Amino acid sequence: MIRRRVSCPNGHFFWCDEAKRTGLIRCPVDGCGLTFVPVSGGYEVEDPKSPAAHETELPDRSHENVQSEEQAGVQLLDGPTTIQVLAELEKQRRRSPSWKRNLTTLAVSLVLFWALGLLRFGPSALGLLVVVLLIHEAGHLIAMRCFGYRDLRMIFIPLLGAAAIGTKTQAPSWQRAIIALAGPAPGILVGTALFTTWLYWDSQLVFYAGNLFLILNQFNLLPIFPLDGGHFFRDVVFSRTRLLEVLFRFLGVAACIAAALVLHSVVLGILGAFLFLGMIMTARIKTLARRADLTTLNTDDLAGEELSDQVARRIIPKVRAIMPESSSPKLVAQYTKLLWEHQRHATVRPPGARATMLLLGVYGLSWLLPIITVVALVILMGVGVLPEPTNELWFKINEIPAVQ
Fold it and tell me: What's the Cα-to-Cα distance from 159 to each of 162, 227, 274, rounded to whole Å?
């Protein structure tokens, strides 16, 4: 008797007698239900839209066509079936953010940010802070839009700041680095312009606004995760080896906790705790990815904008095998998508040598722009191209005697 192995897209296989290749055959594995039609050289999945898939009466051949699960190399778990997990993944796709939901989230987060911010700042200072954050995050969103990111949205984080969010399949490292710089760079340009304006227009509002733009945005360029500078250096430098990336994240957590202790800041302490939990979650995902062994996924499997059912059918059995049998379909679906996204991220390579040098040059220029501007202004004033500032503070600074 000749027996042919039939591979099912749901991640298992079964055996059929060649003598029985006369009609449709249903996969006998519980919870699957796919039907196969004999073709030249084997079997293929029957098109569910085909009339034959609905009109043909399928005989029960499980007792003669299928080996035991142990012989077939499949271990069925008591946990959620593949069909249930696929249904949960479909629910997650349908819950993708809409512009109404994004606008509502932005408004609610802004109200909370304002209400809690009034505990520490006055209305004028808080309003100026909101403007600085809006311009900063708008820079991130514009860069994301230019690079084809989807589901763009902005939220305010009470007592901490704001965040711009978007998704893109396998965004190159150089794009993520530019997005990281696109937030601080416009703010530094605005702050430098306000400082220059203040030299000729003695306005307290312009002075405070310029300082706030410069301080917040240059602070955000510090190479500490999760600041923009931290994201930049992770994508450009530290993502080249796993050890460097882990060490970089650990130093970011340590710096945040140290700052919380020195400044007696509860907010920074909470942020440090969340960063530490994020490190643990990242380590867990990496461990699960190694156990699941998703290296069989090729470039096409990782290139879609969404996790396709065809690829998910290959991942779900592996996820079920490494998770507790009591795991719900929703939890298995979440980890299936997380492991798929982790595998996508693992295939992204850091920028080349030239791109790295160029990006580091832009980063350094963003840091030095205020100093370069001041030096240029002094030189232009010295040669008579620009008039002397009318601001009294500028003259007081120039009257400070030099150290002998």
Answer: 9, 15, 15
